[in-house]
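Worked Example 4.2. Consider the chain below.
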Amino acid sequence: MDYLRTLGSAAVSSLVQKSGLNLPFSLGPKASTHDASSIWTLYDATKRDDGSPVSVFEFDTTVPGKKTLLPLAKNALRKLRVTRHPDVLKFMDAVETDTTIYIMTERVRPLVSELPTWYSKGAQEKQDWLLWGLHRISTALAFVNDPCNSTHGSIRAGSIFLSTSGEWKLGGFELLSSPTDEAAVLYTFGGLMPDANHIAPPEVRKGGWTALKEGPPAAADAYALAILIHTLFNPDAGPPPTTQPPHQPPQPSSRGAIPVSVFPSFKKLLTPNPKPRLPVKTFLDTGLAESLGEGGGFFKENRLIKICEGLESFGLMADGERTALLRTIKDVSHSLPETFATHLVLPSLLTALSHTTMSSSAAAVLPLVIQLGNSVPPTEYPKTVLEPVVKLFASPDRGTRMALLDSLPDFAEKLDKKTVSEKIWPHLQSGFTDTVAILREATVKAIGVLTTKFTDRILNNDLLRFLARLQTDTEPSIRTNTVILLARLAPLLSQTTKSKVLAPAFARALRDDFPAARVAGVRAFVACAASFPPEEIANRVVGLVASAVIDKEKPVRDEAFKAVAMFIDRLEKHAATLPETALDDGAPNPLAGLSPPNGQATLTSSAGALAGWAISSLGKKLAPGELQSSISPGAAPPIIPSATKPAIGLNGVVAGPSSSKPRGMQLSATKTTVRNGLPAELAEEAAAKTWGSGDLMDVNADEDDWSAFESAPDVVISTASLGFDTLSSHDDDDPWGSLDGPSPAASPPPPESAPLARNLPSLSRITSARSPALSAAPSTRSTPLPTPISSPPAELRTPSPVQAAVSTAGMTKEEKAAEMARRKEERKQRIAQLKESKGRAKS
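Applying the procedure from the previous section yields the following structure tokens:
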């Protein structure tokens, strides 16, 4: 069998199965520290049906020297099977053969393997732990002595085990016997146990183990308990001197590390005479006494014992008592035994939280649960802590939900996406619509720690729907925190969602009547600057943020100015990376004339250059189809001789002679349109520089093609605004119809708020070919008149009749050619008439 043992637990299990023995467990590693002080070999094992951890005690009669101990092993199995107590080793199953006995119990480890760890800790911490363990053993021993009317007979460190929760469990039932039991082994085989003589009371040493029949059942166990106390507190001191004849009472000098409050009872346990010896039950009662008299209350004042007793009646406590217990646990949590905290206190608190009656204490219990859970090994944390905590999210109790939201940051990082999306989010979203404002706000704050745990659907759809509703919440703090949360969510959102949600949401915050919400809105724009492309910053974001620079509250204004400066800086950096022009290589740059050589252009010169560029480039940019557009039906304007005809400026005032090249420009007294809205006072100078000197048309250019001029787009400039508005081309069929005066459906005259427009003459009144004022000497002015015309001459008020022009829209190519030939002929006739009248004037 020694050879079998060396094969290891796996080989043992295999051989046992081959022998036809079906074991309810699978053996694991052996606890070697248990061999020297017991007749058993202890194994860590797993239960075969569910894989739960168990311990297996093996007794093998084939091992030399153990066959004589078979009665003790059988007695231990028989007594352990029928003895049930919380502080007694829990029996689960057994397998017995002719040579081997297997006893399966709850998973335990020997006390002797744990003692060296505690001896290195602080005195008070070690004392609390030892007294707590002695209290458990004393309770179990009192149960064996009184209700069971039996003697354990083997109270020593080797008979004590620690459960997975760190609780002390009493085992070693090899000698457990009752005086009334006919098959009692204590009185016959008591001396066969290892170290039996070290714990034997004086009466046994004097009269043998049979002498125990004559004394109380608890006498031998009380004496052994005293020796155990001395061994635990003074492991290096050896047995107390009183164990040797003549058994003198213990002296204070021999107390060692035994607590002062325990020492009086300790001396009574060592009384040589069994009849006056202090029973274990009395020792236990003395330790639990309320009064702190001589030698009393040493169990009652122990912190670990207080916690255990309090947790047992936690649900029945008053609120004040419950609060005091939680405060005690919190104060000693750092010094609690790890297994005690994680397997005893923690499950008790989680169980208490599951009851609705505990909602008032949830705010204090849950943080303590998370704190104690930090000591749980990472492999056990999901099952020990997270699983019961996650189940609490389904609780309808507001106190529990509020406590969960407040404590969520402490354990959120240990949650996985599946748990959050499937088990937490369905219950968490109810907090957004709760009627209690505090719970809604706590839900918004708690969401921030779970953002990386949500699925894309929750982030980009479900969550945003709730936040959109919360941004109109009646509570200003909720609206503010919603904006802050959106800013934190921005990096996780898809680009499509960002473009649809961020700017409108932050813009709404800027209109909030709560100053803090507006500040949050500005800061949110800044925090999410990377989420906005440069085009959106220029076209949308800067305008939205700039509206806050005149906010009524200074903090909002300060933040807005900083934000605008930051966005402008980003735009400047982006603009520096752009090319100088987007035109194709080799194409002329229409902006080249806007900057003078010295780079110091004035606003006036810039306005003139801008107007000239806009007007001259307009015809160049039209599509071929637009260049061939027809003229609307109507009377053709009379031709003004170049020698006497004034040029008309962009703002409707008379300018100097223009160039002889025809210009595709609509001249109207009521509307003008140019790009970028320059000031009205610069319009005159801009018109003069644009047009220069010369005529609108060259009367001598008989062979020129006018199609481009006739189809040139009209540029409308609104003189009511006294400046340059937006340059635009009209697509109507009569781009020149305004030259003949307003049509019946023409728009009403400019409002009274434009005095200059009222003083400007209608172009239909200043285009008469027979005007004496315009037929005098030829004008040589190259600059516009300083003041607008206030009243045109009488001769200009009646235009000469001209033949209505026929529109070429809808004509075929042949019809258009015929129409253009007819117009050319009419033009030649008008030119001839002008030349004839000019000749008569000279003569």
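The longest helix spans residues 813-842. Residues 1-15, 599-804 have pLDDT under 50 and may be disordered. Compare this with Example 4.1 before moving on.
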